[in-house]
Structure formats: C-alpha cells, structure tokens
C-alpha cells in the first residue's frame, strides 16, 4: 500500500469534507489530485478493504429509527429477507442464530411512519416484529492508527 493511500485512510477515518466536491477537498488536504483519491478508493473497494464512504447520521436528528427482529421459520428465511430488503426504510439487515433470526434497522421520517411499516411487515409476512426503538443514543466513533506514522484526527 502506497504512502498516499495510508495518509488517505488515516486522515479521513473521520471528517470527510461536507461540500459539493468532497473528493477534491480530500485531495487538497493531501496535496494530490482528485483522480489520485478516486483511484485509491476504487482500489481499496476492489480489495474488499473499503465498503463505503459516507456519513453516519444520528437517526433521532433526521427522523426515527428502531432495531427490529423477526422470528422467521427456516424455510421462509430467503423469501422474508428478500421482502425486508426491498423496503426503502430498511438497512443493516442480517441473519442471526437465535429464535429471532432476522434483524434490521428501520428508519423513517417519524415514529408514526415506522409504526405503519411495522404493521405492513406483520400483515405481509404474518410475523410479529420485535420493535426495539433507541431510547438513548450512543456514539461510538472509533479511529485506528493503521500505520507506523499514523496521525488519526479525532
């Protein structure tokens, strides 16, 4: 991994510029070109070392969210997961080894909106969602020193 990629990873674990041209702003901060940034991000993604570049938003500031679980009979896992995945309010859908085996985060503009979606899920699947709304937000913002000369900003 070249030195520019290392500096990119260290510098932008936090604080990706919020502007019309974030990749150019990143390039300016690292004294390189926007093409250099885009190339390295593409390479990291192709290697499987990077899954996304984007904001982490506290859902309570942008609407409502809830962690939801379903107890899905094994023969229906694929079809129910496919149904859940097509809902625009759903993200972070994953399978667990438990009675409640399908877990996902439901987000929307309001709690009332989430309630409508939960009712629709129950109606369409015949499964009662376990609704676990966030009561207290916690922000866990980790940054790691990845290289010998790392200077991870907070």
Automatic annotation (TrEMBL):
<comment type="subunit">
    <text>Probably forms a complex composed of NirD, NirL, NirG and NirH. All proteins are required for the total conversion of siroheme to didecarboxysiroheme.</text>
</comment>
<protein>
    <recommendedName>
        <fullName>siroheme decarboxylase</fullName>
        <ecNumber>4.1.1.111</ecNumber>
    </recommendedName>
</protein>
<dbReference type="InterPro" id="IPR053953">
    <property type="entry name" value="NirdL-like_HTH"/>
</dbReference>
<dbReference type="Pfam" id="PF17805">
    <property type="entry name" value="AsnC_trans_reg2"/>
</dbReference>
<dbReference type="InterPro" id="IPR050684">
    <property type="entry name" value="HTH-Siroheme_Decarb"/>
</dbReference>
<dbReference type="InterPro" id="IPR040523">
    <property type="entry name" value="AsnC_trans_reg2"/>
</dbReference>
<comment type="similarity">
    <text>Belongs to the Ahb/Nir family.</text>
</comment>
<feature type="domain" description="Siroheme decarboxylase AsnC-like ligand binding">
    <location>
        <begin position="64"/>
        <end position="130"/>
    </location>
</feature>
<feature type="domain" description="Siroheme decarboxylase NirL-like HTH">
    <location>
        <begin position="6"/>
        <end position="49"/>
    </location>
</feature>
<comment type="pathway">
    <text>Porphyrin-containing compound metabolism.</text>
</comment>
<dbReference type="Pfam" id="PF22451">
    <property type="entry name" value="NirdL-like_HTH"/>
</dbReference>
<keyword id="KW-0456">Lyase</keyword>
<comment type="function">
    <text>Involved in heme d1 biosynthesis. Catalyzes the decarboxylation of siroheme into didecarboxysiroheme.</text>
</comment>
């Amino acid at each position: 991994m070249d030195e520019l990629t290392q500096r990119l990873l260290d510098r932008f674990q936090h604080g990706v510029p919020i502007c019309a041209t974030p990749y150019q702003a990143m390039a300016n901060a690292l004294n390189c070109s926007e093409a250099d940034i885009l190339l390295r991000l593409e390479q990291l993604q192709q290697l499987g070392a990077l899954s996304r570049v984007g904001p982490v938003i506290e859902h309570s500031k942008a609407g409502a969210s809830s962690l939801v679980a379903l107890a899905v009979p094994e023969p229906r896992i694929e079809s129910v997961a496919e149904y859940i995945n097509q809902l625009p309010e759903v993200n972070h859908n994953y399978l667990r080894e438990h009675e409640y085996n399908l877990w996902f985060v439901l987000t929307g503009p309001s709690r009332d909106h989430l309630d409508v979606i939960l009712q629709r899920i129950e109606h369409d699947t015949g499964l009662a969602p376990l609704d676990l709304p966030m009561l207290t937000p916690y922000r866990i913002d980790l940054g790691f020193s990845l290289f010998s000369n790392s200077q991870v900003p907070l």
